Amino acid sequence: MHQHYNLMLVVLSYVVSVLGSFTALQFALGIPRARTQTQRWLAVLAAGTAMGGGAIWAMHFIAMLACNLGVQVTYDVVLTGISAVLAVVACSIGLAMVSSGALRWPNLVFAGMLMGLGVAGMHYLGMAAMLTSAQVSYDGSRVALSVGIAIVASMAALWLAFNLRGKLQMLGSAVVMGVAVCGMHYTGMSAMQMSQGDLLPAGFAQGISGDHLGAVVFGVVVALLVLALGLSIVRQQRRAALTI
């Protein structure tokens, strides 16, 4: 069985990944500037949600919907929700670890490995949420490659989050991060091997599906990211005005 992709949704998945990465980098600026532990954890959670929920999970889900496997597919609501939470938690933990003190390479590598494994776990949990009659198996070497890409991309994201300040630098980094996140996803998708099955699994009818679901998810996530990004920029401008 062969995979075919809706090019429009593929493009939208990349766009949401870039926007999510840029928003996360913007929120990350507030982590070292936090004056209290509450402010710090709020900044970590905001950056982790933008990165894990926007740049990674939303990209993954839209790209999954872009893929036509030639069989009927719906998505388990619970597993899909857990995969989103896992992405946010993994990114938040990575950001918290790296921002806890001076940025040292051992700390960056360890945090990047944890975050990368969490992102890879999100990806394969999200793929496990597929409800279809087809029998699914995986190519082990490509799975390992996708996990490696996730770890390297996570290390890069964590380093960029605390080493960039200019808007153009952030935008360029977000573009690169979008490529890395999409590279991990489509490598993981290429590891999936499907063969024809006969029976639809239990819960198929209750799963998530819809011809325009990918575009709807894109629109909702982008609206939330733009709103969050706007509020972050306004807050930073007010802080800057108070220090003048």
Strands, total number: 6
Indicate the proportion of strand residues. Answer: 5-15%
Q: What is the terminal-to-terminal distance?
A: 63 Å
Given helix and strand content, the structural type is mainly alpha
The SSE string, one letter per element, is: EHHHEEHHEEHHEH
Mean pLDDT across every amino acid position? 88
Strand arrangement in the largest pleated sheet: 1-2
Tally the helices: 8
The main pleated sheet reads as: 2 strands, antiparallel
Number of domains: 1
What is this structure's SSE topology?
Layout: E1 4-5, H1 7-28, H2 30-33, H3 37-66, E2 67-68, E3 74-75, H4 77-98, H5 105-128, E4 130-131, E5 135-138, H6 140-161, H7 167-190, E6 192-195, H8 213-243
Antiparallel strand pairs: 1-2, 3-4, 5-6
Helix pairs in contact: 1-3, 1-7, 1-8, 3-4, 3-5, 3-7, 3-8, 4-5, 4-6, 5-6, 6-7
